User: What shape does this take?
Amino acid sequence: MQPIVRLSGIGKTYGAGETAVSALVDAELDVFPGEVLLIEGPSGSGKTTLLSILGLLLRPSAGTMSVHGRDVGKMRESELAAIRASVFGFVFQGFNLFPALTALENVSYPMRLKGTSVKSPEAEARRLLELVGLGERMKHLPADLSGGQKQRVAIARALGGDPPVILGDEPTAALDSKTALAVMELLGSLAKQHGRAVVVVTHDPRLERYADRVVRVEDGRVLAPERPSQRTSLAGHERHAA
Amino acid sequence: MWSFARKILMHDKVKFAVAAAGVSMSVMLVLVQIGLYLGFMENASNLIDHSTADVWVTGEGNENFDFAAPMDERVYYRIASTPGVDRAERVVLAFGQFRLASGGNQGVEVVGLERDAELLSPWNVVGGDVRRIHEVDGIAVDRSELPKLGLDGADGGASPGLGARNEITGFRSRIVAMTSGIRSFTTSPFVFTNLETARAYTRTRDDRITYVLVRRAPGTSVDALVARLDRIPGVEAHARPSFSTRTRDYWSSRTGVGTGFFMTAVMGVIVGLVVVGQILYSGTLEHLKEYGTLKAMGAKAGAIVRVILYQALISALVGYVIGGGLSFLVREGVRAAALNVVLSPNLLASTAVLTAVMCSAAAILSIVKVLRLDPASVFKG
Ligand SMILES: Nc1ncnc2c1ncn2[C@@H]1O[C@H](COP(=O)(O)OP(=O)(O)OP(=O)(O)O)[C@@H](O)[C@H]1O
Ligand SMILES: [Mg+2]
Assistant: This one.
């Protein structure tokens, strides 16, 4: 199967000279459609750096990278932004929702700003909020939503424009453990139902049961998968489905 | 995207109120200060602008309308007999001393007009009979100047001051007509009367006049007439509009009256700039994470800039409406103090543009901040 994103020989060095930090060394990683990929590793090991490069937010210092087979190494920032808008959806630990906007607006306005081809961003936002189980909370402001609900809004926002890859940096870290599992399950089901790749950085080993593949990062090195894919968890998805 | 910008801007009501107040203040200062200036300028040339003369003729070398030196009356006859002149009228304009009941004197700017004058006569008459200024001691003064003349509420009636008897430079005067809103730039009240009385009040010789007003005959162009009259020795002729501009420019540049008003207006703009800039910037910092998220999501830089610019323009609009409204209130308020604030369509339109530019400039710092924002920062802390 053709990977959506392919990283090979990727290195990243922050700063220069005496204070240079080598955050990533010779990293190899492919992201395939429909898989849930977990990235684990100790603090400071380079997980966020890896995810940022994967999402075209950060340029690597070495190596090559392609998205849908196209080399992105020499692209201008505006071209990278256009690929980000169409290929990646982002989910954050702190949700990053506009406090002034309702759940619906937090999903529909960014869709407009991205310039997606969606005809009615508002109708699409409604559909996505239904999909993440927030049909009843569309008019609520973030302040009136629970952490899990906020993250669902953020996931709906990430789904705007139907990107083939969702990237999350510790999206469950700010949630209590039950909610964290439910959010991860939602992400997992999005991958299973729509053939999307879901890449999640986490410290929480309990999320592994929703993963097809777990990659460890240690000291800037991406280690080979520890376990084979855990297809057995599929049944669990159906059991927890909202 | 307007509604997006509006919601972000108005979410923090207090901040938005401060921004709107800042812009309102700024708009009001600009409108009132420049409006006052325009009011003074309107006063500077009001006699000229309200005349129906095509040409004003004055003694050579007179730069100052209000302090023009008199010229020989024989000039008038030459002008009247010049081809292309349909009608010519003499005007005496000079200063006299109005004796106050309290014992002091108030300088007045006396305007002497011909009997049956057609080219200039007091306008906005609100009381009495303006034709009676041709009686030997009849004068017309402006209602707003009565306090200066020590006559406010003299007879307690509907037209206080009407009928009041006084002395101007030792000659009797009686107020026979009252106008509203005719004020001089020199701040000495205008006193309209007939030619002879004006000469007495101002100690002007009997064969002297200050201006000759001319109406052209049908078929004669104003320019041709001005050129022809200009050839008469010892005089200068000016078409009415250019004479008006010349008079305004003289007062504006010689007194520097414009500078003070413009300085205050500029201060107003700076205050607005700083307040709006500060509010927008702190709002931008507050939402930096979210703007970064939009960038990470691939939103075009132009789209994000628009969201911030629109917030600036909404502040501009709200501030302009409030500040403009307040300016109209101020105009009514200072009318009692006999101050004329001219809120012309031109001034209102240019202030609207200025406000939009000011607020957009105030947004620059925020825009730069967001454009410089590294999209990778969204995954940090
Ligand atoms: N902008 C930066 N400038 C300099 N050094 C950086 C920068 N960002 C990250 N680093 C360094 O690179 C290394 C990897 O950082 P990274 O954020 O990728 O780690 P992480 O695995 O995400 O850690 P955590 O689990 O704590 O989030 C760390 O040593 C960090 O200090
Ligand atoms: Mg990290």
